[in-house]
Amino acid sequence: PSKDSGEDDDQNIDFDDSDEEEDDDYEEINFTSPEFDNDKTKLLPNLNDDVCTWVMLWILQYQQRYKLPNVAINSLFKFLNLLLSVLDKSRLKPV
Hints:
By secondary structure, this protein is mostly helical. The chain is built from three helices and no strands.
């Protein structure tokens, strides 16, 4: 064996050590949902009486369906809030 082949082996060992060090830097991420108590009954708001809640839920479903960014949805919330407050000032409160 020549002297050059020994140097190549040392370099390969160095690369192997750096790979092991990089693997140690990563943490395992747990993507499972948190546990919750199924025994508690949650009262849902009466959506027939609350127009604002119905509109907000519709906007969020629209965002999910068309994969819109939060900036677009925030602008839509502001516009609809202004529109609905002008149309019916007695029922809606500005955000």
